[in-house]
Amino acid sequence: MIRFEVEQGEARGAYLEPQAPEVTLGRSPSSTLVLPDWHVSGNHGQFRLELKQPTPRVWYRDLHSTNGSRIMRGGMTIPVDSSCQWEREVLAGDRLEIGDPAHPVMLKIVFPEPAAAEASDPFAIPPTVPGPMPHVARQEVEAKVVAMRSMASIAEARQIVEADPVSLKAVYESLREIGGALELDEVLEAVSNTIFKLLPKATHLTVVLRDETDEVQRTAAPPSGATPLPRKEKGIDLDAYVPVTTRIRGQKGPQSETITVSHSIFRKVVEQRTAILSADAQQDVGETASIMGARIVSVMAVPLWKADDILGVLQVDNRAAAGIFHERDLDVLAVVAQQSSLAVANARLYRRVLQAEREAKGQASYLKQRELKKFEGIIGESSAMRALFGAIQKVVDTRVTVLIEGETGTGKELVASAVHYQSKRKDKLFVAQNCAALPETLLESELFGHKKGAFTGADADKKGLFELADGGTMFLDEIGEMPFALQSKLLRVLQEGEIRPLGSGTTKTIDVRIVAATNRKLEDEVAAGRFRQDLYYRLQVFPIRLPPLRERRDDIPLLANHFLKRYSQELGKHVAGFSQQGMELLMSHQWPGNVRELENEVQRLVIQAEPGGYVMPNDLSPRIRNVESVLDRIRPPRGSLRDMMDHIEKWLLIEALREHGNNKSATAKTLGITREGLHKKLKSYGIG
């Protein structure tokens, strides 16, 4: 049974064993194989299966997807995108790469064993349209050749070609095109152009390259446990070489016509490491299946090599009735093969470098995501949130007191929790107390504890939160609301590390890291005499400011979808997502209640939404639907045209600076002006 396995992507580990002859894949829930990755199109591609054949066969067609599909065959990439009008057959060992090339979804197609070993001939170019694959006989008579050139004597062929000034010029002009190619597809295109230009008798060209896939991967046992047996002929692993392209004179690009490579000729080229010419092949090579089926009049085959390593074979056929190849043609082909070998080796090296670069970027992205997971529950990818994560990372393993400043609903307790659980204190308690939630006496008892009889109702000793948090972290929310009398006791904890329970005559030493939070400006509280100045300076050692949601609008889609998923799971109701207009309204709202307000709005939307439906604009709260437009918010006061234009320009400059964290170089680049020009405009508007 054919089996489709997702090796990479959000659905990694999923698999499908289809019973129907057609399998669709994409992000759409109606797809046979659903791939939820954002870069996969709704209806991305389609497999067609022939399951009732003795050997199952699979074809793939891309359904005009946005990011395309690619068949990975060894070291080759075979594009299957919207420009491909036909299906391409998928062979055993192939992978299908789907969507974004930097972070693709990787699909493995597992063929049943042992049928997969005989599914197709490794020396036949797979057709791009459905059709019967030719079966090549495994037993062939030894090829009889007219001329041979060993790899060691290629230099002699080069000298022969260079002796003819006319040929020399044509050869070197053509070889320059091969040498300038970087990608493997470009190299193969340049090689075919060169051969058809230098060898007028050549009608067909076939390139066979050794599969660069890791040996363990090629021979790995499929999930069923059956181990495929590699096929070999006289010491040559046929599975190690794959025909990668066929070109025909007068026709552009790779061809869909099936071109077979004679096993006897191929084996002789690889085993004897030699270039051969077989003239009138039907008689001189022997009436074998591949030669007779192709009706080759004459054929040349030369190795592609790097040092002692055979990279592949370049076969050139003459199927015209008139004329056969001669030794002179073999000399030219040998010279071309020498340059082509270097180009193929360089192209594969280039591909490996690109792959290593992609893997390095992927690893860096993974490490970055893993780093961000340290702040689980804090959602955001905006520049403001990245700066916040950086600040937290710097302070987690210090004993410094942290003051978190931010408006109500920005998530100050989440940040305090992150400071604790990423520090060396994470194995101890994280204790939180809202200083505005209790009256002064009860708050003092809650924080510092009390002795029996300290006040009416104190019928037993009680440990305070500071003592419970010994070795860990104490989070004091709304520190600006703490009664003035208690502030001196908190200052003693910060300075001396000591507490004194109510009604006790002795002190206790504790080791507690204090993280405080406030939505007030403590400077104003100090000026008003409601907050101790000395305590303020002790708390201000490392302030962290949480940006309000209106200053990080790019995070609104992330937060909204996060809450949508959470409450959909809690309520057991599937909601498809937000419509574009609905999300635009969410991003335009000012959110005075910040993340908490957004969370409450999404929870309400999930409750009232129809199962499986999208959140539409009319589902949103009236206060969000009636968001003022940008023009309303920046509407200038009445005056001269110049004054109104200056007002708008000033607003745009301030917004641009805010978005770039007051980075003037980045702001100037975004606005398309010089840094000096930006400075002049800021100065003219009195902006620091």
Structural write-up:
There is one protein chain. A hairpin with a 6-residue loop joins strand 1 and strand 2 (about 15). This protein is an alpha+beta fold and about 700 residues long. The chain contains 23 helices and 30 strands. It folds into 5 domains: about 5-120, Tumour Suppressor Smad4 (Sandwich), CATH 2.60.200.20; about 145-355, Beta-Lactamase, CATH 3.30.450; about 385-545, 3-Layer(aba) Sandwich (Rossmann fold); about 550-625, Orthogonal Bundle (Helicase, Ruva Protein, domain 3), CATH 1.10.8.60; about 630-685, Orthogonal Bundle (Arc Repressor Mutant, subunit A). The strands form 8 sheets. The chain has a 6-stranded antiparallel sheet with strand order 2-1-11-10-7-8, with no helix packed on it. A 6-stranded antiparallel sheet has the order 12-17-18-19-13-16, with helices on both faces. It has a 5-stranded mixed sheet with strand order 4-3-5-6-9, with no helix packed on it.
Summarize the structure.
This protein is of the alpha+beta class and 688 residues long.
**What top-tier CATH class of the largest domain fits best?**
Alpha Beta
Helix content: 25-40%
Please report which band the strand proportion falls in: under 5%, 5-15%, 15-25%, 25-35%, 35-45% or over 45%. 15-25%
Q: Shape from CA axes?
A: elongated
CATH 2nd-level architecture of the largest domain: 2-Layer Sandwich
Tally of distinct domains: 5
Q: Tell me the structural class.
A: alpha+beta
The CATH homology group name of the largest domain: GAF domain
Number of strands: 30
How would you write the strand order of the largest sheet?
2-1-11-10-7-8
What's the tally of helices? 23
The biggest sheet, with number of strands, parallel, antiparallel or mixed sense and barrel status, is:
6 strands, antiparallel
| Named CATH topology of the largest domain | Beta-Lactamase
What is the CA-CA span between the terminal residues? 70 Å
Stretches where pLDDT is under 50 for at least 5 consecutive residues are 115-144, 214-231, 281-287
**Radius of gyration over alpha carbons?**
37 Å
Query: If you average the pLDDT, what whole number results?
Result: 79
